[in-house]
Amino acid sequence: MTQATKGTHFLLLAKARTMSLREVFAAGEEAAFSTFCGMRWPENDGKPVCPRCGGLEVFHITTRRKFKCKNAGCYHQFSPTSGTIFASRKMAYVDLLAAILIIVNGAKGVSALQLARDIDCQHKTAFVLAHKLREAMAAEIAGQTVTGTVEVDGAYVGGYVKPANHKENRRDRRLAENQTGKRRVVVIARARNGRTITTVTKSEADGVAFVKAVVAADAVVHADEASHWDALHAKFKTMRINHREAYSKNGACTNMAESFLARLRKMVEGQHHHVSPQHLHQYATHAAWAEDHRREDNGQLCHRALGLALAHPVSRNWKGYWQR
Ligand SMILES: [Zn+2]
Hints:
Layout: H1 21-40, E1 58-61, E2 66-69, E3 77-78, H2 93-105, H3 112-119, H4 123-139, E4 149-157, H5 170-178, E5 184-191, E6 196-201, H6 207-214, E7 220-224, E8 237-241, E9 248-249, E10 252-253, H7 255-272, H8 277-292, H9 298-310
Bound molecules: zinc ion.
């Protein structure tokens, strides 16, 4: 880092649109710490704000990279991750920043095992870290609806069905795997000029209520020929494409929704392998987030993900996950 940029981490500079792990590690712990401060307190130019009382006057405990509130009666000690989803972080700032960069770089998903190897931490640390980041990503679109032209679709994802070795057993084996109750459907509502919203259900038909909830009434909805989508006609202008006839007909097309689900399936089954049903929605959310921001540089993505994490409170789902 040059003298001119010292104090302002490169990640915060508009010109620094791409990032490399080499840069993150070369810039070091102090630079990573100032990045965290910048992203935690953007409204105060990265200068600390006491999370307990809002006080702006603080002592700097530089040796521990912490702050202590000067307000009498408060004296709260805090760091840029206090009260956020990264609270109780044990990892160095530089490693955490590197981990986020690795996660946003992995267009097809990064397994917790690979992440653990890359940043040299325990597998469970990497697993929880990635899931915390996914939870923060989900918050970006929480409560939002999509409108305009919206494609909907659903697909079974995960609950890996082993290819049968013996042809005569194939049907029985696959049926048995399907009956483990581990298979889930990811349902997607994807605006052609907007966001991608996903949910996880037991059947695609259960996705009808989801679509009604997240798609604005004035949207034009595109769906395939599956009969459960018939229920959408009552609420939306709905266009149907029969895939036995064509991929696209009379302007009706669900290719964007389908291609997303195909990529998600590859990501889950190829990279993450055994995704339990209760975590599947987090992978779907992550893939949707990556899809919606695919035109951004990795520096911007890292910046965005870190900003979301530091604006997101302590996770009820992931705090102390391995201590339960
Ligand atoms: Zn305070």
